[in-house]
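Page 37, continued from 36.
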């Protein structure tokens, strides 16, 4: 059991970091698929039962199969190792080899990529694994790929995210093997794949005598696939833009034009949509023709091309791309006494497609779906950061890298062509984000929520009956607010403008106040009425011009004067101007008052009118002045009363008495009876 193991003369060998011949190959089974990670299972023999698994796991191990055309390496990372028991010739171990790319399935992540092509995204993603091979990845891409505004890896492994992006853009991958390493190769053209050259088909009855890699079983097949693709999508920046695209396949068989329609098509313009439709049509066409083969072609792996030669079968002379390969190798048991092999023991089975058919990977990787809304924090520059569509930037709680989203549209309560409602969430707010079709690449802000930092405008639950819409002054302190109070008995609508308030009404405005109305204007007030102005006051109306203390002083002085005239006012039945009941109007002017009327002015007083002038009273009439008193007229002058007439003064009482004085000096006294009564009469 402790005899040394030697692999040098055997057809199958195993190399690991544990050293030469520490583990000797017994059996090798493996599968590799185009656009899938391979898995190789190795059964090995060792003389010890205490191998250092810690030193083995995560390192490269290479199975080397000696073929008629030279050695063929199958390299992988040891992802599992176990002791499988002890046998007659030593301790058995089972190893599982997978590509370094499989390690990307062990790491889940959530990250955001801005304005990058799919190639740049893959380069960033795979850079962390580059040390596992030299080179670990090789890009053999010939197509042009658009810059993607926003791409999210969401709750998925690096492997699933990478495969999803490659499937989305029509990029295939396979692996190229060498001793101690393997390379991930990315292609987008079937002709970029390496060829192993000619491999003949030899019928089963004589294949074992053939000294070259060959096939001994060959089965062509056809599959019915979708024959037509129709897609559409929507671009909010150009909502009326035509987006529908379709593409027909070239299948000639019956039912070859079955159409598949899908939305959303995952494109922004119709031109890009045609490319997407072409890729999906190619995916269907590529699944149309298959060939199944069995042989001993150890050099043929998934991702390599081969040309069929040999005995005539359908497809002879054509070149095929290997889509999958299953490998099986068993070596001669150690200790059997032989020279290391009893003959060639490698077999393989293969799935191939003509290299004239399109090579586009099918979309198998599940696209992550965001189930339900999330919240995020608004970020950006300054206090408010938006673009011409009102879109904002947010940072999701799961984004540990501190990146931000794409510009997210914000749902509004109404949105029309230049009309509707709009509120831009501000930096630091917590917003509710939903995702169109659950797609993490398509966020939409649908609401806002308060949190422990951003508290409510009014204390709750104290003011639970209060509904409000309060803004916050940009780059300053203050707010505008519209508030509603619904507590019974305290119902109120409150409006606050931090600076200006403008109200524009193009037609009519009606206002009805059930009880009292108060209005305070801190500075000036002006009213312009183009048409008529009517005011109806059922009670009293008072106007005071000037500051209230001065108005009160003026009123007190005026009242003293009116008190002195009280008797005369009473005789004339003029009401007390300071003890009005209802239906009266009072005007108090602190200093001056002027009134200018362009043409005519009339005033009608139904009962009595009084005019009180504190100092001087003057009336100037440009032409005529008439005073008509139907009853009695009294004039009370305290000191001097002067009457000056330019041409003639006439005083007439009744029909018979008259005094006339002219500017020429004539004085005529006319009456039925003239009496002169005085203590003394003097004559010049």
């Amino acid at each position: 059991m402790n005899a040394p193991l030697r692999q040098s003369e055997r057809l199958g060998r195993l190399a690991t970091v544990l050293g030469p011949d520490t583990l000797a190959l017994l059996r090798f089974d493996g599968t590799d698929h185009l656009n899938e990670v391979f898995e190789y299972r190795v059964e090995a023999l060792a003389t010890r039962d205490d191998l250092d698994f810690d030193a083995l796991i995560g390192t490269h191990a290479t199975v080397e199969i000696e073929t008629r055309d030279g050695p063929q390496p199958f390299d992988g990372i040891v992802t599992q190792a176990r002791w499988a028991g002890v046998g007659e010739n030593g301790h058995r171990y089972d190893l599982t080899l997978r590509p370094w790319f499989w390690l990307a399935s062990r790491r889940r992540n959530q990250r955001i990529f801005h304005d990058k092509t799919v190639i740049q995204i893959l380069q960033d993603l795979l850079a962390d694994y580059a040390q596992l091979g030299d080179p670990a990845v090789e890009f053999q891409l010939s197509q042009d790929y658009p810059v993607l505004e926003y791409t999210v890896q969401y709750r998925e492994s690096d492997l699933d995210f990478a495969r999803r992006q490659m499937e989305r853009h029509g990029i295939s991958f396979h692996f190229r093997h060498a001793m101690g390493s393997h390379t991930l190769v990315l292609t987008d053209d079937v002709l970029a794949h390496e060829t192993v050259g000619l491999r003949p088909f030899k019928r089963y009855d004589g294949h074992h005598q053939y000294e070259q890699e060959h096939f001994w079983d060959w089965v062509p097949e056809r599959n019915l696939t979708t024959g037509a693709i129709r897609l559409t999508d929507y671009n909010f920046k150009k909502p009326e833009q035509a987006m529908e695209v379709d593409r027909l396949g070239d299948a000639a068989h019956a039912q070859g034009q079955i159409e598949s329609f899908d939305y959303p098509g995952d494109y922004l313009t119709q031109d890009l949509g045609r490319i997407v439709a072409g890729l999906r049509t190619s995916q269907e066409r590529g699944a149309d023709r298959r060939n199944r083969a069995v042989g001993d072609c150890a050099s043929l792996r998934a991702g390599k091309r081969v040309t069929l030669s040999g005995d005539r079968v359908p497809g002879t002379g054509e070149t095929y791309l290997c889509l999958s390969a299953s490998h099986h190798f068993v070596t001669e048991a150690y200790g059997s006494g032989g020279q290391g092999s009893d003959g060639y023991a490698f077999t393989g089975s293969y799935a191939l497609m003509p290299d004239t058919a399109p090579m586009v990977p099918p979309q198998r990787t599940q696209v992550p779906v965001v189930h339900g809304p999330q919240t995020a924090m608004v970020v950006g520059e300054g206090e408010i950061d938006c673009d011409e569509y009102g879109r904002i930037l947010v940072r999701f709680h799961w984004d540990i890298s501190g990146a931000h989203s794409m510009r997210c549209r914000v749902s509004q309560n109404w949105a029309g062509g230049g009309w509707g409602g709009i509120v831009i969430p501000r930096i630091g707010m917590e917003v509710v984000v939903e995702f169109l079709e659950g797609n993490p690449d398509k966020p939409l802000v649908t609401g806002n929520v308060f949190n422990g930092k951003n508290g409510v405008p009014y204390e709750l639950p104290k003011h639970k009956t209060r509904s409000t819409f309060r803004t916050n002054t940009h780059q300053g302190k203050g707010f505008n607010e519209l508030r509603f109070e619904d507590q019974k008995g305290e119902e109120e609508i409150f409006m606050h403008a931090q600076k200006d308030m403008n109200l524009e009404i193009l037609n009519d405005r009606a206002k009805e106040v059930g009880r009292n109305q108060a209005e305070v204007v801190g500075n000036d007030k002006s009213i312009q009425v183009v048409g008529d102005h009517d005011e109806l006051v059922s009670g009293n109306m008072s106007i005071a011009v000037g500051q209230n203390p001065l108005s009160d002083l003026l009123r007190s002085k005026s009242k003293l004067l009116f008190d002195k005239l009280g008797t005369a006012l009473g005789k004339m039945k003029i009401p007390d101007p300071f003890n009005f009941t209802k239906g009266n109007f009072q005007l108090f002017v602190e200093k001056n008052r002027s009134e200018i009327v362009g043409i005519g002015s009339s005033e009608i007083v139904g009962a009595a009118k009084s005019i009180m002038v504190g100092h001087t009273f003057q009336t100037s009439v440009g032409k005529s002045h008439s005073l008509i008193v139907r009853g009695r007229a009294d004039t009370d002058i305290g000191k001097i009363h002067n009457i000056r007439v330019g041409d003639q003064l006439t005083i007439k009482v009744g029909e018979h008495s008259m005094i006339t004085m002219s500017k020429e000096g004539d004085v005529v006294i006319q009456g039925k009876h003239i009496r002169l009564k005085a203590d003394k009469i003097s004559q010049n």
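The helical segments are 53-56, 118-126, 158-169, 270-286, 548-564, 566-571. Flag for discussion at group meeting. Residues 337-342 have pLDDT under 50 and may be disordered.
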